[in-house]
Amino acid sequence: MAAKRGITLYHSPASRAFIAYWMLEELGVPFDVQTVDIAKGEQKDPRYLKINPSGKVPALTDGAATVSETPAICIFLADRYGYGTLAPRIEDPRRGEYLRWMVYAASVLDPVAELHSRAIDLPGGATGFGTYDDMVRVLETALSRHEYIAGDAFTAADVALGGGLSMLLYNRKLPESPALLDYNARLAARPACQRAADATWPAQLFPPAG
Ligand SMILES: N[C@@H](CCC(=O)N[C@@H](CS)C(=O)NCC(=O)O)C(=O)O
């Protein structure tokens, strides 16, 4: 069977699909958007579960390849279309930090902020992700040392982690501290980020600049 051609992003408005959309905009590659309306439960349709067995958005297909989990989508796309620019090369020592923050986005930032917003704070040593206060301190420290999460250059880790951070700030699940707000403003100023927010977020995702 011939492989499907081109990139398709499976998307729902005002969801984590914003992050994958932003990644595609940063790379400037053509893609189709297929809406999977999570408000209507379309993410649990058996046809979509073949693409993402978790029944969540986003997911992405590129030819014969299928990928889901937002940071995995960012890693996949950056390696394929932005290797050496938005993704540090394998031999580049900066790839270590880059991968650290990619995984941190999904394994620490997302679950810890969501749990904290529901007043669930587990003891740091008892979980793989640590406490909310530790997570905020770790992020603030990293972001006060350099402009972007993995160093002085913007990378796909800023899309994966920064996109999640922007959504959490929007939903008031992170503190509006100077380090986090300044970083969010730097990301929001990027034309690709603005295009993705305009295309995927019915309300205003970012506060007006100024
Ligand atoms: N770990 C997943 C989380 C994706 C996720 O939770 N997506 C939400 C929208 S933001 C969703 O599809 N919710 C619908 C549902 O779970 O039924 C990722 O990083 O992609």
Short description:
The protein contains eight helices and four strands, in the order βαβαββαααααα. The radius of gyration is 17 Å and the shape is globular. With 210 residues, the protein is of the alpha+beta class.
Give descriptors for this structure.
Glutathione S-transferase Yfyf (Class Pi), Chain A, domain 2, 8 helices, 4 strands, globular, four-stranded mixed β-sheet, Glutaredoxin
Q: Any chance you could write out the topology, listing elements then pairs?
A:
Elements: E1 7-11, H1 17-27, E2 32-35, H2 46-49, E3 59-62, E4 65-68, H3 70-81, H4 94-117, H5 132-145, H6 156-170, H7 178-188, H8 191-200
Parallel strand pairs: 1-2
Antiparallel strand pairs: 1-3, 3-4
Helix pairs in contact: 1-3, 1-6, 1-8, 3-4, 3-6, 4-6, 6-7
Bound molecules: glutathione.
What sequence of helices (H) and strands (E) makes up the elements? EHEHEEHHHHHH
Number of strands: 4
* Cα Rg: 17 Å
**Beta-strand content estimate:** 5-15%
Average pLDDT level: 95
Instruction: Work out the helicity level.
Output: 40-55%
Spatial strand order of the main sheet:
2-1-3-4
